[in-house]
Amino acid sequence: xxxxxxxxxxxxxxxxxxxxxxxxxxxxxxxxxxxxxxxxxxxxxxxxxxxxxxxxxxxxxxxxxxxxxxxxxxxxxxxxxxxxxxxxxxxxxxxxxxxxxxxxxxxxxxxxxxxxxxxxxxxxxxxxxxxxxxxxxxxxxxxxxxxxxxxxxxxxxxxxxxxxxxxxxxxxxxxxxxxxxxxxxxxxxxxxxxxxxxxxxxxxxxxxxxxxxxxxxxxxxxxxxxxxxxxxxxxxxxxxx
Length: 241
What we know:
The protein is an alpha/beta fold.
């Protein structure tokens, strides 16, 4: 089971450094766990320079749809040596009006440049209420390329209505969605490739519910937001899985 921590803009550079320092002080808890850390872009180098846990992957929270050129303020995925990237997060889709077309470009850049790419998918509350969940997810998955270019793909199901609200779907609900995703992937890729694709869940995951959620058989890991920014909560989640 993998715990991926999306720190968003909660931790600045000093906070990030202190968090990693605490992890090393209790390395016996973390060194054999599979962990992914997504700091703010300005803190990536600090996190990389202060971390040597063997199973920890460090990545970008997002990347530009452009690899290089005269684009002030953009963060190209080729601008720094990292091992993972998140694309299609609901905050990018909703707050920055990113279309499937934009996310597709980012997805292809990530698959081309890094070892692990997380594609976030999930329905809004009103889409769920209109029974459009599967249609929305299918549309979001439609940007997947036929060739993954040797990169590991991770699909993170994050229902928008659950993120930051404390509303967590039942294990049965999540399992049904993941089964749908798995079926979609099997129609697109060979059995060998599908075996290498991982399925995550994200949305109000914390130290209180992560153990119960871990019982979902199709689940390979979690993408956790605000709860992953508090060290003691993070430590409890790591212990729980």
